[in-house]
Each structure stands twice: as C-alpha cells, then as structure tokens.
Design brief:
Length: about 400
C-alpha cells in the first residue's frame, strides 16, 4: 500500500481510505480493467488511436475513469491540455480542472487520484442552489406565481440580472424541485405553472364541423397581405374562441403576430355573431390605429357579421382554409396559455371583463424566448415609442 500511495501522490492513510470507499481491493480491479493504456506504470499511447477513443462523450457527461487514464497517458507523452481536449472531445477547461484535481505531490497527474477526488466530491452532500440563495428563490417563486414556465424564469433572470451570476439558475434546476421537494411550495408552484392537458394527442383526421358553412363575402387568407406572413410588420392579428362547458359560453382571444400581445373578449351570455361583433367593435379602439392592419380567423359562424366589424373599425378580416389551425399558429399557442386560467368544462361566462383584462395583463407580462426573454408588453411599448419602427410600420 505504501508504494501504491506514493505513486498516487497521497499518504498511506489516504490510500487505505480510498480502498475502503471503493469497496475493497477486489472492487479496485474495475479501475485496472478500465485503464488498459497504463501498462506497468508506462503509458501505452497507441490505444489512443483506436476508434473507441474518437467517440464523442455524451453532452454534459462526467469524465470516465478511462478518460482520466487517457489524460495521464497523453500528459506522459507531452501533450498540453488544449490538445488533450481535442483528442477526447472535451472542453479545454474540463481537462484543465481535472489535471489540477488529480495532481500528486510530485507535480504529476494520476488517473486514480483524479477518480477518487471525483467520487469523494460526488458523495459530499451539497446545498441546493435555490436553498442557498433566498433572493434567487424569491425571484423563482415570484415568477411561478405569475405562471411563468421554468424556462421563462431562467431566461428572464439573465435579462434582469445580467451582471450577477448568483441570480441565475437553469430551468432544469427548477424542474428538479418537483422531485427534491415533492410536497413543498416550490413543487406546487412548478406544477401549477406547467401546461396541463391531454397526455395523448387527439386524432387529426377530418372531423365534421358543426354549424359551419361558407360565410358571406368571406375573404380567403390567400388574399391576406404578404407582409403578415413574416411578422416583420406589426398590426396583424389572429383570433378565435375558447369554449366552456357544453359549448354554452366562450371567451374571445386575439393575439398580435409581431409582439405576441394578447387581448381577451368578454362575451356575456352567448357567443353568437352579434355578441362577437359587438365585443370586437368595443375592444379594438383600446389600441392605436397603427395596430389595425388585419385579423385572421377560422370559418366559424361567430364571424358571420365580419363585414360589420370591418365597417366599424376599418380592420380587414381574412379567413383560414377549412381544417387548417396552423394558419393561426400564434393564436393556437395563445389558447393553450389561456386554458391555464380557464380550464375546459367550466362556465366561462362567470368571468367578467376585469378578470379577463387581468389575465391578459399576466400573459402580456410573461417573458418570451423569441424576444430574448422580453415580454409582449415590453415589445409593444418599444414598438409604440420607437419613431423609426412606427414609420416602418406605416410605410
């Protein structure tokens, strides 16, 4: 043991402790078998040219004992960390840290020392990131209470605290709280923030559309201005209804394609064409006319009075092809977000205009990845306050 400890650059007591942690001498054979490139203490670098050594490690995977042996062999050959990193398909900093951890008192790297240091480090209990930083935990809880997803929280933290890495956290760390604290407040809020629904997709075959037929004076989406397709020009909207229990109640949903800004329509009593038209005509003047360019809807009978809406607001309305919800992709996604607040099978007429405005404000306050974690409300404010953008939009 004294010779082995000296070769590893540790005391004899440390050598015995490592052997015990590894499960005894018999279990240490796994290290010998995993490290064929060290023969009688001499590095056999020819193994490094084998096809197996060229395989890329899984992203984020810890160094294996075999890789540590290859590091030792390559260092013996005279390779520098950058060259070793390229040969092993690892980041240079990973190799540099490993060499520092596995360095012996004789200033040489030993794979067995690096492996034991790794296993000791993994066995050591750790304070979890959210538990160790109350300020970070408070920010995460605040985001979850606003129904932000873990990914939205992680992205927004980097935007709000660009110079403070202590206030950053990965979305995976937040998700793991479900398993680490299965009954805690964090787990409850994470589950509430996640979108819930079917675990299986609905069949996508053509289904009979009840109460639908070609609307009078309908303008097809194929006639919609091409500027609406790439979202570069603001003011183009998509709309739809989400239905309540027994299709007896509904809420209208509108989303602006460029900013993702959401409006919700209160439809008291029913969702007939008259009710929807009245709600649309009342809602649109809340926004500046720069944002009244077009509206895209499906061919539901609730839009039978679309010409009345256009006459009152000047907003041209275009209609999707039958069975083509992807032609309103932004609105379909928005409906999924709205369902977090208004589940299927509930009476939607119970929710008044004030409640709908509050929900819309929450949705417009959620950070979005496609905007660099800015919110739809921030994007709309920027649009309306930027003269250059306004000129481009009205060109």
């Amino acid at each position: 043991m004294a010779d082995a400890a000296a070769a590893a650059g540790v005391s004899e007591a440390s050598g015995f402790r490592w052997v015990r942690k590894a499960g005894g001498m018999a279990n240490l054979a796994k290290y010998r078998d995993a490290c064929p490139i060290l023969l009688n203490g001499v590095a056999d670098v020819t193994v490094l040219r084998s096809p197996e050594s060229d395989a890329e490690p899984p992203p984020g995977a810890a160094l294996s004992f075999t890789e540590r042996c290859r590091i030792e062999a390559l260092l013996t050959e005279g390779q520098i960390p950058a060259q070793i990193a390229r040969l092993l398909g690892r980041h240079r900093s990973t190799i540099t840290r490993e060499i520092a951890r596995g360095m012996t008192s004789g200033d040489s790297y030993r794979a067995i020392r690096g492996q034991c240091e790794y296993e000791t480090r993994m066995a050591r209990p750790k304070v979890r990131r959210l538990q160790a930083n109350p300020a970070l935990l408070a920010e995460v809880l605040s985001g979850l209470k606003k129904r932000y997803s873990p990914r939205q929280i992680a992205g927004r933290l980097r935007l709000d605290f660009p110079d403070d890495p202590e206030m950053w956290v990965s979305h995976e760390t937040i998700y793991q709280a479900i398993y680490v604290q299965p009954r805690g407040e964090l787990a409850r809020l994470v589950k509430a923030a996640l979108r819930t629904g079917r675990i299986k997709r609905k069949p996508q075959g053509r289904q009979a559309q009840q109460g639908r037929g070609k609307l009078k004076d309908m303008i097809s989406i194929s006639d919609r201005p091409k500027e609406a397709d790439d979202r570069a020009i603001p003011g183009h909207w998509e709309g739809d209804l989400i239905l309540g229990a027994n299709n007896a109640s509904a809420i209208g949903t509108l989303v602006e394609r460029t900013t993702g800004f959401v409006l919700l329509l209160h439809l008291p009593g029913d969702h007939t064409a008259e009710t929807v038209a009245a709600a649309m005509i009342a809602k649109m003047p809340e926004l500046p006319e720069i944002l009244w360019r077009s509206l895209t809807w499906d061919q539901g009978r609730e839009m039978a009075l679309h010409t009345k809406i256009t006459e009152a607001t000047g907003l041209p309305i275009y209609f999707c092809d039958p069975h083509s919800p992807w032609q309103r992709g932004s609105n379909e996604n928005t409906n999924g977000l709205v369902r977090q607040y208004f589940p299927k099978g509930t009476d939607l007429s119970f929710h008044g205009p004030g409640i709908l405005d509050n929900v819309a404000a929450e949705l417009n306050g959620r950070p979005r990845e496609r905007f660099g974690w800015k919110t739809p409300a921030e994007m709309l404010d920027k649009l309306l306050s930027d003269p250059n953008q306004s000129v481009a939009a009205t060109a």
